[in-house]
Amino acid sequence: MYQPKTLAHGNFSPEDITVTVSPSNRKIDPNTESKIDIFWEEKVKKAKANDQLLYNGLSYRLNAFAEKDGKLSLDFGIFDFKTRECLPEVPGYEELGEDYFRKGCFTSATVKTSDDKYLLVELTGKSMNRNQVDFLGGIMETEPPIKNGQDIFVSLYQELEEEAFIHRGDIQEAKLKLLFLNSRTNACFYFEVALALSSKDLQKRFDQQTKEVDIRSLKIYSWEDYIPQLKQLNENKKFIAESISK
C-alpha cells in the first residue's frame, strides 16, 4: 500500500491560494487504462446488487502545486469518476510511479463546535465510500467550477451543509492546514473548521432534518477521544491525527 505523503502544510486562507485549470498531465499506461472499463462494470454490478449509489461524473485531480512564503499555487486537471475510482484496482498501478497516479482531489475537515467537541459522521453504506466512520468532506467536483482559493473552501462548505446541516453562517473560522497524497493515491485537502454553534444545537438541528442518503448520524467526541478514534480508523486518518496532534 502507498504510504501517505505530505505535499504542503500551513495555515492557508482563501486569499493565500491561487488556482489554474489545465488539461490533465497524468501519464497514461495503455495496459492499465485498457482494464478500467472491466473494473467499472464490476463496480456497477456490485453497486446495483447492494443498492448503492454510483455515477460517472467529473472531478478535479491535482496536476501540480507550489508552496512559497505561506502561499499555495494549485493547478487542477479534470477526469471522470470511472477512471478515478478504478485505477487503483488494476494490478501493478502503484508500481507505475507518482506521475501515473490519479491524484483525485477531495476535502476532509476536523470540525470543532463552540463547546470544544469534534465531529465525525457515521455512514449508511449507501455510497461507494469504504469507511463506516469518516470526516465531513467529499470529492471536489467540477460543478460548480473551482477557479480560485475561495472556491476550494466553498467545495468544503457545501459538504458541511449537505452532510451535517452546518450553514455558512455557523462557520467562525476555516483554514486549509494540509495537502497530502493519501494511501489510495488521491489528493486530500485537509481543513480545520471552528463553529459558532454548540454540539447540542447542531445535533438538534441534524435530528430535525431529512438526512443525506449516505449519512446515518453525527459522531461527537472530546479532543481526548477524537485523536485516538482517528488513529483506529485507517492509515489516512492516522496520518492526519499524527499531523495535528504534534
Explain what the structure shows.
- This protein has 246 residues and is an alpha+beta fold.
- The protein has a single domain, classed as Nucleoside Triphosphate Pyrophosphohydrolase (Alpha-Beta Complex), CATH 3.90.79.10.
- Helices cover 29% and strands 31% of the residues.
- It contains seven helices and ten strands.
- The strands form two sheets. Strands 1, 5, 6, 7, 8, 9 and 10 form a seven-stranded mixed β-sheet that branches. It has a three-stranded mixed β-sheet with strand order 2-4-3.
- A hairpin with a 5-residue loop joins strand 5 and strand 6.
- Helix 6 runs antiparallel to helix 7.
- The longest helix has 16 residues.
- The relative contact order is 0.19.
What would you say the CATH architecture is? Alpha-Beta Complex
Measured as a percent range, the helix fraction is 25-40%
> What is the total domain count?
1
Please count the helical segments. 7
Shape: globular
CATH topology (level 3) name: Nucleoside Triphosphate Pyrophosphohydrolase
Q: Which stretches are poorly predicted, pLDDT < 50 over at least 5 residues?
A: none
Describe the largest sheet.
7 strands, mixed
Mean pLDDT comes to: 94
CA-atom Rg in angstroms: 18 Å
CATH top level assignment: Alpha Beta
Briefly characterize the structure.
The protein is of the alpha+beta class and 246 residues long.
Main traits of this protein?
246 residues, alpha+beta, Nucleoside Triphosphate Pyrophosphohydrolase, three-stranded mixed β-sheet, 10 strands
